[in-house]
Structure formats: structure tokens, C-alpha cells
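go over my protein:
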Amino acid sequence: MRSQTHKIPDLIDPQALYSTNGQEAWRVLGIMAEFQMAADRLNGVRPAVSIFGSARIRNGHAYYEIAKTIARKLSDAGFSVISGGGPGLMEAANHGAHAGRAPAIGLNIVLPNEPRGNQYQDISIDFRYFFARKMMFVRFASAYVVLPGGFGTLDELTECLTLVQTGKSQRIPIILVGGTFWQGWLDWLEDKVAAEGMIGENDVGLMRVIDEPDAVVEAIFTFYENRGFQPSRDEREKLLNL
């Protein structure tokens, strides 16, 4: 008996494309395309630093000015600067980097009734899917610089901490800027979360608080001085399997 050879089009019910399952299939293809497009556009940006912070801080605020200064110094030192592409401290990061030597990159999320990315982006990528965007922050970052922010900022910070803690990502500098803002949270992690065994006793040490812009840049260079910025083969493998 002859075996049957099926071609992909023969296996697709045209009506299924309009069903819930068909919509899910197209969504998966959209996600794959988004990953591939972003990875291709960011492939040459290393070394890069991802900077996070509140979207609600306006130009002229002390946090805005320090984010802008840090980003400019990182850019002039040769780091591409990646932000979420929105307003507030994301804009400040792109604003500072845009005036420097290396590219200012915005990973913009498309949201209803929200404006598209800020005007200071040399490379601008729009995402529909939060998790695709989040992966790009980690995959291309040689360091995280995290300024005061809300749920979105905490989400990005704890995502990176979890990946490093569990060995799913390479160890990178995770720098908190704004010691007075972060101190209560760090104390709670030490006194409650670590003390009750929810995290390891050394896990809070995955982060450092640094408030001086020059010291932020120096800390990143110091971390890499004996190994270089390119990930090792094992680290590349981890990044491909986030």
C-alpha cells in the first residue's frame, strides 16, 4: 500500500484560519516574525546597556536629568543604550544617548491610546508582545541600569534578577540608581525575603546601588575588564534558551 505524502496546504482547513485556533496559529507566526525582526536589527549593537525607569517623570526632574547624564556618558563610552522607547525616564535615556557617540535604541510597545515612541531614537522597534520585547532587553544587554519606577520597572528588574539567579542568563551588572528610593525595598528583601529563605542570602548582592553617573560607567567597565563584552559560547547558548 502506497504511503500518503501530505503537503502543508493540504493539511490546513481554510475555515480554521477564521476560528479561535486559526487565530492562535497566526498569532504564533506574528510572534516568531517579531522575534526575528528585532534580533536582526539589534544584532550589531553590542555592547549595550538597558536603562529602565518610570514613564511618569518629566523633563527637568532630578531623575530625568541623572538618567540623561548616565545615558550620555555610556553612549560616549561606546555603549548602545536601550530603553523602552516611551516617555519619562525612557525618553531621558534615549535623549542622553542620542546626543552621544553610540546609538539610542527604543523598544516600543504598541498600546491602545498611547503615543508611539519618543523622538530620540536612532533605532526604533515596535512590539505588540510584551514578552518578545522583554527578551530583547536581556538578550542584548551587557548591564542593567534601573532608575526609580513603578510596576513596569520592577517587572523588568525582577525578570533580570530571576534569570541571573536561576542561571538562565549570564551574570551582568545590575545597577540601581537612586539609593534613597530603593533602600526600603532592599531592606525588605534582606529582612523578610532572604531572612525567611525565599531567596538565597547572597541574592540581594546581585544588585548594586550607585548614584554617581561616572561611577555607573566605571562599575560596568570594571566588571568586564578581565573578560570582554562578548558572551562566551555557554552564555550565548543560555541567551538562545531564555
User: Anything to note?
Assistant: The helical segments are 20-42, 62-76, 89-98, 130-139, 151-165, 179-194, 213-224, 233-240. The domain at 46-240 is CATH 3.40.50.450 (Rossmann fold).
